[in-house]
Amino acid sequence: MTDPIAQLRQAAALHQAGRLAEAEPLYAAALTALPGHPDALHLYGVLCAQTGRNARAVDLIGAAIARKADSGAYHANLARALRAEGRLAEAAGSLRRAIALQPSADAFFSLGNLLKQTGHTREALACFRRALILRPEAVETRMNAAAALEALGRREEALRQLRDALACAPAAPAPLFNLARTEQAAGHADTAARGYRRALRSAEEGEDSAINLGTALLEAGHPTEAAHALRRCAALAPDRPERMLALATALRQAGDVDGCLTVFQRLKALTPTDPTPWQRSAEVQEAAGRLEGCTSTLLEVARLSREGRFHWKTAYYHLVRISNLLIGQGRLDRVAALLPPAVAAFRGIDADLHAWALFLQGSLAVRLGDAAAARDAFRRAEPHLPFLAHVPTGDGFARRVEALAPAADTESEAAFVPETLAPPGNGPVVVASCDSGYLERFGPLFLASLDRFSAPGQAAHLHILDPRPDTDARVAALQARLRHVRLGWSYETSPAGLTPQARTTFYTFARFLRVPRLARLYRAPLLVADIDACLLSDPTGFLTPLSAATPLALQYFPDNLARLYDGVGGGLMVLRPEPTVIALFERIRRFLVSWIAERRLHYFLDQIALTAGTDDALRRGDGPSILPIPADGRLFRCGGGLFVQILTEKEQPGFAASVAALLDRLDRTPPSPDPRLDRGLILDAIGVTV
Description:
Blueprint: H1 4-16, H2 20-33, H3 38-50, H4 54-67, H5 72-84, H6 88-101, H7 105-117, H8 121-134, H9 139-151, H10 155-168, H11 173-185, H12 189-202, H13 207-219, H14 223-236, H15 241-253, H16 257-270, H17 276-287, H18 291-306, H19 314-328, H20 332-347, H21 351-368, H22 371-381, H23 396-402, H24 406-414, E1 417-420, E2 429-435, H25 436-453, E3 458-465, H26 471-480, E4 485-492, H27 500-522, E5 526-529, E6 533-535, E7 552-556, H28 563-566, E8 568-575, H29 579-598, H30 605-620, E9 626-628, E10 631-632, E11 635-638, E12 641-645, H31 655-668, H32 675-686
Parallel strand pairs: 2-3, 2-5, 3-4, 7-9
Antiparallel strand pairs: 1-4, 5-8, 6-12, 7-8, 10-11, 11-12
């Protein structure tokens, strides 16, 4: 009869030698003969984990621990299987038990990695430090500690860890590469370039180092050397667009215009549906003084757009980008030279593009103070761009505001019906407006995201347009789902006599009509936002950069040539109820009411009113100081506040089902201790990548 203990030893020897297929039947036989033997259960579980059967591994190792709970190795190996199963909190608990029983560098390292994965970066760093006390020569631990320090904004400490890692393994490519990359992020481009060269000499496969070497040389002001390095990278993988783009950038900075344009020609063939190479080609040609080539490129983009390759306005967007780059350089003279040939070129190919180019000419005239030329350009473009009727020139905004008939003003104010006010908390009152359809479609997600990150007592206010008979019940149902947010609401009926298009426009700006009234009612700061959006942080964080001296934050783009309709974004505004802010929005309100009275409401009126109002306040010298809210990719940041708009994602198949599943999960689970986890959950559900 076979000795089961000998069988177990033989299985362990085969296992250690990597002969897993031979070891497995011996483990199974040993367990049959010795049911419940802890070492057999544990080792068989480890083998199952190594062969991808992690659920089985969890069962086997868990059974071993039930019989022998004082083995640190058992708990550490259970943690590996749990982590592979996605059971991260349980895995962390198992590692902590392993450390309590048998502290080891490996266990601290594994726990640090797990904590970093779940967003607990400070705790992760502490674990890496404990691991390094036990094993100071561990290169990977030092690199992971450096990554944690970098994530915490402690770059100099990260650099010290990476230098220590390199001292432990002077020829290892990983610490060389990571040290060079961190030096580059710290702005030490020359030092980074030297590091990438060392990494290239130390690694058989060094393409990442070669690419980063090229970018570091560019940052260090050595474009010719950068082009040499990047040309080799592009030759190794000629089908990689990002390498071609990096090479073209280096050639441009090196002054090789023809070489740069040749690379862009290759990129156009490689990525035929990407308009970027066309845009960059036009920029390079304009910068080189080749206006005819620049115009020809824009014209070709327009032709391809008519064929369906690009969005129909792509050539206009390219023209705006080039103009804005020049405005940023203070070169209005070059904008003035660029626009006439573009206007002429577009005239013969697309009437709408021609109108948009005329709009840019008029916008430049406004910037140069030539109101007559602006009005002439807008007059010619208005048949294709009806919103230009709303754009005031000269003192047109002030004249319209001051000429508003009292009866029209009274009628508009009487339309506002406050139902309930939420008791204000410590942060701003979050305000959104919508019609009944958007209330049903986006209200639950908007409020759920707000509720997820808010402290108890957070106030929100919904202004609902054209309410239905069941709107009060819908608001009550929304309130019932909220843990922290207290909800107030008001309503109004859209003005009679509007076309469907005009009514939609009214919906876009109605909240701006009510900012002064809500500020007076709540006597608190307001955060005014689109409802088809998500708050991704505690609203209180949005207030931190505001003060009595700078009481207003909004999406503000004064250097945009298209600024007359796109200079202020109303998707997110944060304001303190200071007199200058209330006065600004009172004049914006009157401007909007004047157009309502005429029943002329064209698309973009919401943005036109905000831009014209801020311009008027600047002209009068009595407006509030404005803090521009910057965009970080898809996220808007204001102080500690984070906000994301839902754009084309809402039209994607499956969006509604994904949001419904998210809302169900948020209802069932409390907020995570680390808000980044909830933030990632929401962004994944709505399909936004940051």
